[in-house]
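User: Fold this, then the next.

Assistant: Folding the first:
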Amino acid sequence: MLRINYNPQEYVFTSSLPSEITITTDAASVAISIVCGSVTVFSSTFYPYKQNVMLYDTRSVIENYLKKTGAPLTTFYILAVTSEMSVRTTERTAIFSNVNIAPGGASSYIKSKFLTTQSSYTIPFEASQMLTFILIPNVTMQCYVDCLILPDGETTPRVVRLEEQPITSTTFRVQRYQFSPRSIHSQLKRNCKLLQFSIHRGVLPKTFYVTGRMPNLVLYLRNEFNCVEYIYLTCVIKSKIDLDRSTATCLGTTSFYDDKSVYEYEVESSMLTYEEATRYSRLLLSHDIRIVDTFGVYAIIVSDISSELSDADNALNSIKFKFRYGTKRFHVSLSIPNNIFTDPYHRTFD
């Protein structure tokens, strides 16, 4: 006798995976493996107690594999083997999720939403963003972008639709779409101001409000579904250095050793909506966060978050956090800060 008491649904979020799975057997020992794709990510031998073996924390095993590969999903199955027989669960698809979504909701979620929990975005005109979604086999997805524009010389905005090629896939796979307001504006081929646009992929919509402000801080990170996103913050950044090192003197020469000095940055954002502030605070806990600068992308570690958020209509929400660079090197940007005056200065009474 050998039985795995778990039958996962066809699509399942990792947040919905059970914390413990029972395997029933009358054998003296059982070898249990968790296989993701073609890779065995966990394997061990268990010895039953009262004909039961408990497999704990399958979620962490699969999520750690997805973090390592950078993929938002993987197929998986559980394999149990004794000296006399072997059984395995049906191969299913696990989708990375570090937020709790109703069990059984994975199938309907991926068919109706992008892999993000933010309802709409504010995006600078010169910035870019990435949306990730899942293609269902043999389903044709109509693609278009609805743009709200203000033509030059007019006072009334109008909506213009940009048609794109439909997408059809024969396999269940992840699709990524990277774009920028500037690239969408260039497709309009007219003199106008782009106010907002909505990207449609089949029944999946997402709206972006375009702003002309320049962000002080650009963060590249992995979101709730292990997909790449960018955060654009208008903020104040303060840098602090904490010197912590010992000195030693030998033959009249003093030198440093045991250097534990830390260069830390404090960030306070400008006003955000309640949804933005709440989600950004959560995204700052991501396992992969980097700063995008003029000359590269640098890994950082968020060491502290202190934000008090309110859903009141008149609340002025913002987020505060501290970060350090992943490497103990000073990073210098040669770009001109946004708060430098470049216009000629004229004294008032001249």
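Now the next one, as you asked:
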Amino acid sequence: MVVVGCTTSPSIIERPGPDASISRLPEGSSDQIWASSDLRAVIVRPTFDESPAGVITRDSRTTLAILDPRRATWLMNARLTEQEGLELTARIQQLVIENSLLEQRKEGSELSVQLRLQPPVGESSLPIPGGKWRVLTKSISSGDHMVHLGIVDAEGETVVAEVAMDMVVARDLMHRLAAAVRSPAY
């Protein structure tokens, strides 16, 4: 008796995923601040999503997310078109250059997150339809050497989550984001 089996890999559907989302704050967090000293910026292009039913979709946009590796959680993330990624990179670059012109610089590696909204009870994340990344820092002053980015709602008026990073992290993010948005999204 010969048994022959044929399997095919599941097809991947090209479909935009959620524009943005934020996670639930962990127990013990206060003042909407995510309590972790080990946060990282993650850039993914393209992004693959899998539904609970096992359907795999591909979104060619670049995802910029803030990750807490200890909890294996994306705290906040939003997807960027190529143009949005280039504009975000250019604005971060302006702030990094502005900081380099100041005489006294604080160098380190700092990243902190504030989540201003929370998912409904029982949900682990809150989708933000039309949510986008925006640079919130207007200029670098001699007293504050942090770059603040936020995820804003579809109208661009309400900041639902904010990340503050020092110049070391901002410079690294600028280079990695520029490379990701300029690469093909296969």
